[in-house]
């Protein structure tokens, strides 16, 4: 399954654990270099760096790439990167880079390729880099960059040295047009400057999701791939880079083809993982030449393991009663997600569905078999099929299991006239690639899949997750808020599949994209074990008036997970949540009065009142929150896969949605979580055979009245993990009592204290009250 294997020509070791650092001008390569001794001592094998290629000046994330030919100067340039790699290598560490193949910054001032396209039009050698529909509109590329209508800013435009300038923006001029009168000059360009609001319906280039500032790149073109990957391939060949994280592969026209080309270009020398969001039981395509995913599937299973299913259901009932119609009309997950999908496909992605409609209409017009399907019918069919895609997108094969006949029947039900509904069959066949293999047929198939992934991301991750909020810990990428709990058997089955099929896949608990860090989610997930206590807490703070009950529930639960009143951090996170939800305000149509009320509410309530210590019952939850946090950390560090630690998460780390979670790395004090992390990482490095592709995964079952509250497994015959599940329910049921766990034969050392020993054997099982006497988790190694 994986293109990277120990003993390959590169003779580089498979990563045992990675540590993600967020690079930015405030934390450049030199700062990362100073952190290397600490991170090496922690026990990781590789540093994982956020994007390092040239980006928009001042960018704090680097995903807005401007030039693939060079390493970002603001971070220290290529010299700084190579120096960091040398220091890391001297301390036994390798480097993994975050690679962004799908998009670049749509900034003519900084993006040299785009600048040349704007200057020379479709005849530019760089025109093949971007998906631009030159036939749309008036044959020019729409640039929705103006802060107001053109008539309102026209007088501020200036022409100097072949450049049109406006408020810090610069646009190249077509040769021979510099001396034209203003109106003629604007009309003579290969682009049309317009008000930013026109992007929603008029945009004629592919972008990243709904962000017009990021333009899609056609890496499916061999020449574009070569030009945009030459520097990365050089760094791999020179031994500077050992691994790659591939950002948003679902945005590509052909993810599998791209990964095959990347594998060939790097000579199979890289450990490659993809930021692929798997939905439910959706498998990662077995034919992809990668080690696995970046780990959101593992995150969902780990979080679900520490969520109480009956309590989550009860919490959802309380939420519906509390929020009423202030939430999303009824408060059921599936309906919320479907309504969000319709909102996004008809509003935010209107330009994308219009582009698909134009393409489908051209295909139908040129094919006698397909003529007489009205554009509106094709548009309706596209919309109705898109909202019924249950995963992010289709790929080369298996599309029939995604765009099913059942989905087609549901799409047809949206038509009042059955004869018009046959457009659904045409669109479905085009999306599956069964109607032809011409350039436009292939383009439609790719663009439908690309639009599908954008729709899923925007409607689920960025809308529905903020509209349906009974248990916020479940609302993470790849999660299922409608079914947040995962049983031990389901978890064991998942790990067995990883050990068998993707043993070198990535696993994560916190990333730069998680809406709440693992420690914040641990605080929230405990509420699934005590839904009535949560209701009582809300009654205690009911005296602080909120703009609406849905907002109150979301803000207070966020504050509970965060643990410490902090209006400066909670305020922006809550404000972002209401804008993303789009129920009362949004990014593009803000309601200043509502947003002011939100800010005032957070300052008066969630940002001021220490909810975790507001009552005796809430304070009593702290040990259970700690048990969840430590248990999740230990499971992630010892389950199949290559665990990643996000910066600062080797200790308790409470962070909210970006940009809160993207602050520069700063070493803090050690705590009990740090000791656990060090011990687990040390074992991973000492026993690569136990944790590597041959280590397997072997569940262990406890016996006794509290057996469901223990999750245990061993790796090879060397390391054993045991953690406490749902500790509050356990305490309410009387504790461990006589529940025991039979260890494999032999002597086992508790590596968390280095003192205690246990003897294995079916005849002498260890009492869990003894095993978990000092802490709610246990990590044992064969003595």
Low-confidence segments, given as residue ranges, are 1-11
Strand content: 5-15%
The general outline is globular
- The N- and C-terminal alpha carbons lie at a distance of 34 Å
Report the structural category: alpha/beta
**Biggest pleated-sheet summary:** 8 strands, parallel
Gyration radius, in Å: 27 Å
Query: What topology, given as strand order, has the largest sheet?
Result: 16-15-14-5-2-1-18-17
Helicity, as a percent range: 40-55%
Overall mean pLDDT: 95
Describe the structure.
The chain is an alpha/beta fold and 783 residues long. It is built from 28 helices and 26 strands. It has an eight-stranded parallel β-sheet. A six-stranded antiparallel β-sheet has the order 19-20-21-26-23-24, covered by helices on one side. A hairpin with a 3-residue loop joins β20 (710-715) and β21 (719-724). α12 (350-366) packs across α13 and α13 (375-386) packs across α14 (405-412). The radius of gyration is 27 Å and the shape is globular.
